[in-house]
Amino acid sequence: MTIELVPAALIDAYRGIAASTIGHVLQEGHIHGLPPLVADVHIVGRVSTAQIHAPDGSVLRDALIASQPGDVLVIANSGEANCACWGELRTIAARIKGLAGVVIDGPVTDVRALRTLGLPIFCGGVSAYTTRSLGGEGAVNVPVTVRGVWVQPGDLLVADDDGIYVLPSEQAGELLERLQSKEAADTARRAELQARLEQSEG
């Protein structure tokens, strides 16, 4: 499979784009139901993927090895939905690797440690029941489906407190100017309203 990587310059350009700004112009690519574990986050990165079948999480070691610094690891689960595949040790390994964040279609464990470690993690909840290395099903850097959204390695991922968007490289490039214009217009309008608010309260 040939992976089309989103260019680094495009990743940098999207650092000024909020997920909700994308949501004003696009519906497809929105992954719902996976909020950030810790608030006040904004990540932009190139997608790497892992497909697991919980309770078997053995492929995640290979996924971490295959990921590159700045990547966002997206984990899809076709197995038991209440089984946590991510915790403290994998978060430490991800920070060592330099990942921008992790998106998990399922719960996590070791929540207190994860909050302390500070890696942006988007997930479906918390569970004390966890995966283990069974050496069975799983794949790395293959197309996956997360909450009905088709996600491919090399895609662009933008995520913050409002949600997650995944865009193929070509689509991200085509939308950039429109999204930047929307951000600029919102910034100007925000400043105008803030000035009126301060005047009214003065």
What does this entry look like structurally?
The protein has 202 residues and is of the alpha/beta class. The chain has one domain (8-201): Ribonuclease E inhibitor RraA/RraA-like (Glucose Oxidase, domain 1, 3-Layer(bba) Sandwich). Helices cover 34% and strands 24% of the residues. The protein has helices at 8-13, 19-23, 59-66, 88-97, 111-117, 169-201; strands spanning 30-31, 42-52, 71-77, 101-104, 107-108, 121-122, 125-126, 139-140, 144-146, 149-151, 156-160, 163-167. Strands 1, 2, 3, 4, 6, 8, 11 and 12 form an eight-stranded mixed β-sheet that branches. It has a two-stranded parallel ribbon with strand order 5-7. Strands 9-10 form a two-stranded antiparallel sheet. Helix 4 (88-97) runs parallel beside helix 5. The mean pLDDT is 95.
Oligomeric assembly: single chain
Helix proportion range: 25-40%
Figure out the total of helices. 6
The proportion of strand residues reads 15-25%
Query: What number of structural domains do the residues give?
Result: 1
The CATH architecture would be 3-Layer(bba) Sandwich
> Uncertain segments of ≥5 residues (pLDDT<50)?
none
Major sheet attributes = 8 strands, mixed
Write down the CATH topology. Answer: Glucose Oxidase, domain 1
Order of helices and strands: HHEEHEHEEHEEEEEEEH
CATH class: Alpha Beta
Q: Let me know the CATH homologous superfamily.
A: Ribonuclease E inhibitor RraA/RraA-like
